[in-house]
Design a protein that fits this description.
There is one protein chain. It contains 14 helices and no strands. It is mainly alpha-helical. The longest helix is centred in the first third of the chain and has 14 residues, at 30-43. The radius of gyration is 21 Å and the shape is elongated. The protein starts with a helix and ends with a helix.
Length: 206
């Protein structure tokens, strides 16, 4: 009954945001808190979801709030949260939320900025499903300039997800490192793209 009442408060708009916040803060019941987060999303209360993401101690609830910010398209709120959280797990959740919110610019910025390699790797991998065409030259740049093989492999994976056989073939032709060349060829071998097939035939006929 309480969850249903919370749902109705959500569909009534932002006028009950303060009441919902009071319920969220006062409750120790995870299900009630989830219901409030859902009501926030229904009413479009981005600031309230941001407050929950900042103040929640339970990691699962905190990341649920982060994911909801992505579903709400709350780019500014996600940027604020990314800049203030020290948690790598939360940063990864925020990167996924950036993708859901259609914010490829922030994914590109983080993927190309010096910082925690685990976070950068996650950002690079997120450019595959969420980066679109603007991610293609960025991924080539990352692959070409980075020394860390994990980051380079992440760039290859994202180019594969984007279906970017053109750049993968070009990189494979120039690659002198046997392990990296093998990784490039492995990805090209499972692509249905004509350019990828032609390159594979070229290798077989050598």
């Amino acid at each position: 009954m309480q969850a249903r009442a919370i749902h109705y408060l959500g569909i009534s708009g932002t006028r009950y945001s303060k009441l919902l916040q009071d319920i969220y803060v006062a409750s120790s019941d995870v299900n009630v808190k989830r219901a409030v987060l859902q009501a926030y999303m229904t009413s479009g209360a981005k600031e309230a979801v941001l407050a929950a993401a900042r103040g929640e101690r339970d990691p699962e609830l905190r990341q649920s709030a982060i994911h909801q910010l992505g579903a709400m398209g709350a780019r500014n709120e996600l940027q604020q949260l990314y800049g203030s959280t020290p948690s790598v797990d939360d940063k990864e959740a925020i990167l996924q939320a950036f993708g859901v919110a259609g914010d490829s610019d922030d994914l590109i910025r983080i993927a190309t900025t010096q910082g925690d390699n685990r976070v950068r790797k996650y950002a690079i991998r997120s450019l595959g499903p969420f980066g679109g065409e603007k991610a293609r030259p960025v991924l080539v740049q990352i692959y070409t300039n980075e020394k860390d093989p994990e980051l380079r492999r992440a760039a290859i994976q994202s180019m594969f997800v984007l279906g970017d056989a053109t750049d993968l073939v070009a990189l494979a032709r120039k690659e002198s490192d046997p392990e990296m060349k093998q990784k490039l060829v492995e990805q090209l071998s499972v692509m249905g793209n004509r350019e990828a097939r032609d390159y594979m035939l070229e290798i077989l006929n050598k």
